[in-house]
Amino acid sequence: MKRKAYAVFSLLLFLLGAACFSIANVSGSAEYVAAAEGQSVYRLDVAQTRGGIYDCQLRPLVGEKRKWVAAVAPTIEAIGALEKATGGKYRQRLALALEDGKPFLMELERSLENPCIDLFSVPERYGENQLAPHVIGYLDSMGSGVSGIELAMNDVLESHTGKATVYYQVDALGHVVAGGDRQVADTLRESRGGVALTLDSDLQRAVEEAAVPLEKGAVVVTEVPNCEIRALISLPTYSPIDLGAAAENPDGPLVNRAFCAYAPGSVFKLVGAAAKLESGGNAQESYECTGVVNAGGMLFHCFDGMAHGKLDLKGALEHSCNCYFINSGRSLGGQNILNMAYNLGLGAEQEFGRGLFSEAGELPEAASLENARALANFSFGQGELTVTPVQMCAVVNAIASGGAYCSPKLIAGTVNSELRLTETQSIADRSLRAMSASTAEILKSGMEGAVKEGTAKPGAPKNCKAGVKTGTAQTGVYEGKEELLHFWYCGYVCDETGPRYCITVLRESTADDLGATAKVFRTVAEALGKSMAEER
Is residue 264 within 8 Å of residue 394, measured between CB atoms? Predict the structure, then answer.
C-alpha cells in the first residue's frame, strides 16, 4: 500500500515539474513576449477621414474648416496645460481623467505645445453653411456615401482614407506607464486626395445667395462651350449636419430639383424653332396671331388671349407666341420636333457618376402626336412632356455654342494627395452637331430680342449682354381655385467674345411668381457679368 502511494506521489511530482518546464519555456518564447507587450499597449483612435471633394480650381468643398483634437496622456503636467489652455472650463472633466489614468481625446479651440500631448488638425467634413449640399451629398452612420458625389465616387473617396492613432504603454489597469514610450501613426494627409468637380466655389456661393427668392426650385449655370456645370442649386436647401430636420420638412429639401423633371412650357419653343429651321423653314415667313387657334376642335390661346398680330420667328420667340408655334408644329409634324429634342439630350437620363443620375424626363410617343390636340400642346411645351433644369441648360448651351450639343459635366477628375489632377471623361458624355451655326444665330437673335423688348425684359442684366427664353408651364394642380405653375428663365450671358455662361432658373409650383424668377436670373447674370469683367 505504501509502495503504491509513493508511486502516485512520484508521478504527481513529475507532472508538476513538466508543467513548470513548459511554462518557463513558453514564457521565454518570442510569441509570448510579443503577446504580453501587445496586452500592455493602449490604442487611442483620434480621427478617420475620407478623400476630399474640390471645385474646378482645387479649392476644398468639404473639410475646409478644421478643429484641433488633442490626444492626452493624463499626467499632472498635461492636465495642467489643458486646464490653462481651456481657462478652467473643463476642470471637473480633467480631474476625472487624471484620476482614471487612461489616455483620452479632447477638442481644443487653439493649438498648444506639451510633451505629453499630441495635437492633430482634423477636418470637419461639413459646415453649417455647406456649399452645394445637393451636389456633395452626405454620409451614413458608417461613413459611406448615401447621395450625391459622396455616393457616386464613394470608392475613390474611400481609397484616400486617412487615420490618426496614438499607441501608449499602459499597465494592467490601463493606466499610462510613467515615462513609457508612445507611438503616433498619422496618415491624415492621405485624405487630401479625392475628386475634383466642375463647380466654381465663388460662383456657387453667389448663385446660392441670389436664388433665395425662389423658395422652391433650382438654378443651374454651365460654361460655354463644353457645358461644365459651374453652379447648381436646389431649393429648399438643407444642412448635412442636421439631416433629421431635412427629412421632416414637407417641402422635401433632400430632393435635388435640378435633376428632377418638370413641364417646360414655352422654353421648349427653342426646340420647335430649331426643328423648323433645320427642316428648311423660313425664319422671315410671317404669321398672323389673333390670340387663339383651333387644333382638333380645341381652342388654344396665347397668354391672356393676347393677339400678337404679324410675327416672324424672331418675333414669336421674343413675345412667346403660342399660336405661332402651334401653327409651325402642324407644318413640321411631331416627328421632326421629337428628333430635335432627342438631339438636344431631352428624354434621356444624364449620368454624372455611379448612382448619380438626373431624371430622363418624358417625351411623347410619335404616334400620340398624330392627334392634333396633342401636337398643339407639344408645340408650345405642354402635354406629355417634361424636362429637367440641367437638360434645359444643355439645350441653351448648344444654341450659345453655335449648334454643338455637349452633355452636362459635373466631375472634372480625380486628385492625388499632392493635389495633382487627373482629368477623367465619363463614358456617358455625348456630343454632336444638333443644328447648324446659322440656325443657332437666328435663335440667339430671338433670345436677345426677348431681353431687349420681349417677355424677358424684367430679367435683363445691367452689366452684360444676355439672351433668354421664358416659360410658364401649367401643372394641372390647384391650390384652392388657383392653378400652380412652373416659371422658367433659360438663357445665356456674354463676354466680349460672345456667350460665356448659360443659366436656367426654375421656380416650382406657385400660383404667382411675383417676378422672383426674373429677379433671380438678373442677379445671377449680373454676378457672372461682374466675374467676367474682373477677368479682363
Answer: no
